[in-house]
Automatic annotation (TrEMBL):
Residues 11-28 have a biased composition (Basic residues). It comes from the Bacteria. Residues 1-47 are annotated as: Disordered. This is Uncharacterized protein. InterPro entries: QRL_CxxC_CxxC. It comes from Actinopolymorpha pittospori.
């Protein structure tokens, strides 16, 4: 007769040791990056992640508000740790930001034309519907080893 060695008859597994919580270290980093006067960071007011004052925004936040920095100097910075290294995001004043520029119809037409050229295969001259990879230089159909490229001007 065989013995059942299922989950109930096995000895209890050892639990993995828990890592220490990063509480004290995180507090130290927040204190390290909290420098509203800029004394420790070359005169640039510095704030920790999510602690910037109202009225300041990053370029992406300005873009979401349909604004742009408009040539104004950097007002402050946010610092945080990313992969063990300090990372920085620059902040601009919202009240000094200018409205985002709107392209003219001619500029939009030029962009559409350029994107269409990137989608057109140079071998079969067909709009592939996606950007042609520069590593291949042609559409995926033409780059397939079993496919014979269509002669120019005979594309359907």
């Amino acid at each position: 007769m065989s013995t059942y060695h299922g989950p109930r008859n096995q000895p209890p597994r050892r639990r993995a040791r828990r890592r220490p919580r990063p509480g004290p270290r995180r507090r130290r980093l927040v204190a390290e990056f909290d420098d509203p006067t800029g004394a420790r960071h070359g005169g640039m007011p510095t704030y920790p992640w999510h602690m910037a004052p109202d009225g300041l925004a990053t370029k992406r936040q300005l873009l979401a508000l349909e604004l742009r920095p408009g040539g104004q100097p950097i007002a402050a910075q946010i610092m945080w740790m990313r992969h063990g290294q300090p990372a920085v995001a620059y902040l601009y004043r919202i009240d000094a930001a200018k409205p985002k520029r709107i392209p003219t119809l001619a500029q939009l037409h030029a962009i559409e034309k350029a994107l269409a050229a990137r989608r057109t295969c140079p071998l079969c001259e067909v709009d592939a519907g996606y950007t042609i990879p520069t590593s291949l230089g042609c559409c995926l159909d033409c780059s397939a080893p079993t496919h014979q490229p269509i002669e120019k001007g005979l594309a359907a």
